[in-house]
Amino acid sequence: MTTELVLGGARSGKSSYAESLALAGGKEVVYIATATAGDDEMAERIERHRKDRPNNWLVVEEPLALAEAIKQHSLPNNCLLVDCLTLWLTNCLFNKDHAIEWQQHKDDLLSALEQAPGDVILVSNEVGQGIVPIGEMSRRFVDESGWLHQSIAKQVERVTFVTAGIPQYLKGT
């Protein structure tokens, strides 16, 4: 069992890299999509991703209960591909109707990753390399994203940063 965090900026090639990893592993792939179509442009992005994925992958759309999806679908002989953590973070932070607080979501995710019997590839946007954003919620998002990435990086075997489609290995080989 291996768990890898794949980080990169927007349009860096991180999703394509993660998908190639999942294919190369030779295991059954379960793709956990966290995106929600809040507008037409996002709906087009989601549709483009759907068309790019292999048809034989099981797709689970889960915008909030990510830890539960990992617990339910991770098996010793499969690979979960989660795309993406920053969209999931957005869903958690901005969903006022959801009873569980962000810290509980994060703790549940870290626990689920630790217990997952199969391979897990996590895709996320690195947003902490720019200036400090204006606005409390924007700053919180950047902070929580950075802390989430740090927590995951501590417990996973591999961390890869993708820039211009080129993977740079930060942890593991």
What does this protein structure show overall?
This protein has 173 residues and is of the alpha/beta class. It has a single domain, classed as Rossmann fold (3-Layer(aba) Sandwich), CATH 3.40.50. The protein contains six helices and seven strands. It has helices at residues 14-24, 40-52, 66-73, 85-94, 102-115, 136-155; strands at 3-8, 28-33, 58-61, 78-83, 119-125, 158-163, 166-171. A seven-stranded mixed β-sheet has the order 3-2-4-5-1-6-7, with helices on both faces. Strand 6 and strand 7 form a beta hairpin. Helix 3 (66-73) runs parallel beside helix 5. The longest helix is centred in the C-terminal third of the chain and has 20 residues, at 136-155. The two termini are 14 Å apart. The mean pLDDT is 93.
Brief summary of the model shown:
The chain is α/β, with parallel strands linked by helices. The chain is built from six helices and seven strands, in the order βαβαβαβααβαββ.
Strand order of the largest sheet: 3-2-4-5-1-6-7
Q: How many domain regions?
A: 1
Question: Main beta sheet: strand number and arrangement?
Answer: 7 strands, mixed
Structural class computed from helices and strand pairing: alpha/beta
Percent range for β-strand residues: 15-25%
From the 3D coordinates, which CATH architecture would you assign?
3-Layer(aba) Sandwich
What is the terminal-to-terminal distance? 14 Å
Instruction: Say how many strands there are.
Output: 7
What is the fold-level CATH name, i.e. the topology? Rossmann fold
The global form is: globular
**The CATH H-level homologous superfamily:** P-loop containing nucleotide triphosphate hydrolases
Q: What is the share of helical residues?
A: 40-55%
* Mean pLDDT across every amino acid position: 93
Taking Cα atoms only, what radius of gyration do you get, to the nearest Å?
A: 15 Å
The low-confidence runs, each spanning 5 or more residues with pLDDT under 50, are: none
CATH top level label: Alpha Beta
The helix count comes to 6
Order of helices and strands: EHEHEHEHHEHEE
